[in-house]
Protein: Asparaginase
Amino acid sequence: MQKPKVAVIGTGGTICSIGVGPFDILDYGANECMLHADEVVAKFPEVHEHAEVIPVRYKAVPSPNIHFAVWKDLVLMMDDLVAKTPDLAGIVILHGTASLEETAYFLSLTAKVAVPIVVVGSQRPASALSTDAGMNLANAIRTAAAPASRGLGVLVLLNDEIHAAREVTKTSTFRLQTFRSPDFGVLGHADGDAIVFYRKPIRRAAPDTEFDIRDLDELPRVDIAYAYTGSDGTAARAFVEAGAKGVVSAGFAPGFAGQGDADVLKAAVAEKGVVVVQSTRAGSGRTFRGKRLREMGFLIADNLNPQKARLLLSLALTRTADPAEIERMFLTY
Structure:
């Protein structure tokens, strides 16, 4: 029986990292040794049991350094992979966990290929005793190859759990079960005998989206103003003065900024046309557009966390500055 073809693109991260020994599970980044996709696959040759793996060399960088240029490259690379390999079953992207959720959601808004895309990382480097890198990679490949993974948007796989890119977030610094979908839970599991799904996300996702970054050189500037007691709006004011076209207010639950930030952001909306989206620092749950937000001209992030609301707002601003249209996008994606 012919094995499904799965491409594996490497961008670096813990899953690609080599520490100084088997117990170096925290400070391995100081060793400055990251493998490329083909080298990671070679380190875990068992993955070939599940698919015909096509490693794709790209970059090996810490994930906090990944932003628009890398995301655009990935979108174009995936276009090229599908065009050159028409029978490609799926694509796996190796990624550091620090910003993995942001890359996964951004690609779920912008990728234009119909095959499953699975973003995978690990909490322990590939060199560590009891690393999760090998099993996560194998399960990501199995998930990308599974027909049931089609039509679910970009997926995230760690710790045998399959999450929707829109919903998942990193919740713990060191624990293997760090990735969680706080409001709704996992989509399914990568078990030893099967890839199984129990629910489907209904929000619009790749490849059927209105966002196309392939001809863009950059994104509009969008910043995040984090709420804390005593904030006097200094950070929010600096963002506006730096030219932010949008600001996400990571507010107090259930979704409001303190007075110092609110005054600055309200003025930015009224005087400079900055689009402000109200999210919350709580980690889960919806925000709502009550009387205060309506009067200030703020939109709501629904249940997106601040870092994901920032991505959607950035993409929305490549299409329109109309608040009604941006509100529609936040209710669609």
Notes: The chain is about 30% helix and 20% strand. The longest helix spans residues 68-84.
